[in-house]
Amino acid sequence: xxxxxxxxxxxxxxxxxxxxxxxxxxxxxxxxxxxxxxxxxxxxxxxxxxxxxxxxxxxxxxxxxxxxxxxxxxxxxxxxxxxxxxxxxxxxxxxxxxxxxxxxxxxxxxxxxxxxxxxxxxxxxxxxxxxxxxxxxxxxxxxxxxxxxxxxxxxxxxxxxxxxxxxxxxxxxxxxxxxxxxxxxxxxxxxxxxxxxxxxxxxxxxxxxxxxxxxxxxxxxxxxxxxxxxxxxxxxxxxxxxxxxxxxxxxxxxxxxxxxxxxxxxxxxxxxxxxxxxxxxxx
Length: 283
Ligand code: C2E
Ligand code: MG
Ligand code: MG
Ligand code: MG
What we know:
With 283 residues, this protein is α/β, with parallel strands linked by helices. It is 50% helix and 19% strand.
């Protein structure tokens, strides 16, 4: 019996690992053709000003429409893009698309519209990288730096190399704003908040999820909000799904909310309609 169980375990695990590795190899291969094949698409999710319901901001979230597999989550393919170096070209595409759409919305909907885009650590830190190209492109579109926010994760600031501080200074010089994504999940060494020029803290979804009066997540969220405001940062709560969460966050003074309560991330045509039709849908 022991022998049988052992053999079962063996034959169960080995092929699974092989399948996973093979799957990653195949996906990475497909990823090489995805840009050329125009298989990427940017979705937009509104970021809502909680006190007024105004929507002058959105986060750009990439989707990969795989010809055979359908939509592949960025959680699955961004790590592969990082490992293969393809993240550089994908990031450049995300930037150009974000600039293109923010230009439209600034002209036609709100003059102060802002799009946030995500940069993975490898993308942000890569050697020789510079925002000079971004700046030139923004100038060509007559867009100020404040049209864009770059979302990075706090882990980057922990082992802040000079490359990281250089990049942050470049962003600052360009007028592009910076948000700390998933705040509270990493090793939040708070001293970095005064060392670096950050504009927004995004409270991670794991805090929002369990918000209730007198809960520990409520206490943590309130503390984050008070601290952020003293440091002159705005706070965005991620993953707002219920009216109760929204009300608790608003009462705690949270500046912005993002989540399924307001809207899921949408394809650009749908988001464009949403923005024009429902400028203030959630007051
Ligand atoms: P993130 O930057 O923290 O983005 C928020 C994620 O939460 C998104 O997942 C969004 O769809 C999801 N979300 C928003 N509201 C709710 C809610 O109310 N409930 C729940 N359960 N989820 C909500 P998504 O689009 O799958 O993106 C996952 C991650 O992939 C992002 O996390 C970001 O780290 C990364 N990512 C997405 N687009 C890009 C990109 O263009 N470049 C890079 N480097 N990373 C990206
Ligand atoms: Mg983000
Ligand atoms: Mg986030
Ligand atoms: Mg997140």
